[in-house]
Design brief:
The chain has 111 residues and is an alpha/beta fold. It has helices spanning 2-6, 8-23, 25-34, 55-64, 80-83, 85-101; strands spanning 42-47, 68-73, 108-110. 56% of the residues lie in helices and 14% in strands. Strands 1-2-3 form a 3-stranded parallel beta sheet, with helices on both faces. Strand 1, helix 4 and strand 2 (68-73) form a beta-alpha-beta unit.
Length: 111
């Protein structure tokens, strides 16, 4: 997150993308409709105490993805990379390791 927050060029591009997505809800709806067609493993990491993006949204997103896997992070809110950077890195590392060694034994987990 640091580049998005501190580098003007990256921050400007991120803001542009978010504004464009907000202005064109059709874009977001089209993207959401295509999620069930994504045929690769997908990790959804969600903050369990988030009020802005409730856990139910993460659960729904993981269900939309045929190979979606939800991991909820305790003691975190919307910006997991800022609240729990080490935990997020470990979750991503574990997911990558599982992809290399075979299918996951856990469809959903909570951290």
């Amino acid at each position: 997150m640091r580049p998005v927050l501190t580098r003007p060029g990256i921050r400007r591009d991120a803001v542009r993308m978010l504004r464009a997505a907000a202005a064109d809800t059709g874009f977001l709806l089209t993207a959401a409709e295509r999620l069930p067609g994504f045929d690769r493993p997908a990790l959804v990491v969600w903050a369990s105490q988030d009020r802005v993006m409730p856990p139910e949204h993460g659960q729904r997103l993981a269900r939309l993805l045929p190979q979606g896997r939800l991991t909820e992070v305790d003691d975190s809110y919307t910006l997991i990379p800022l609240d729990q950077p080490a935990r997020l890195a470990q979750i991503i590392r574990d997911f990558g390791d599982e992809l290399e060694t075979g299918p996951s034994r856990h469809a959903n987990q909570r951290s």
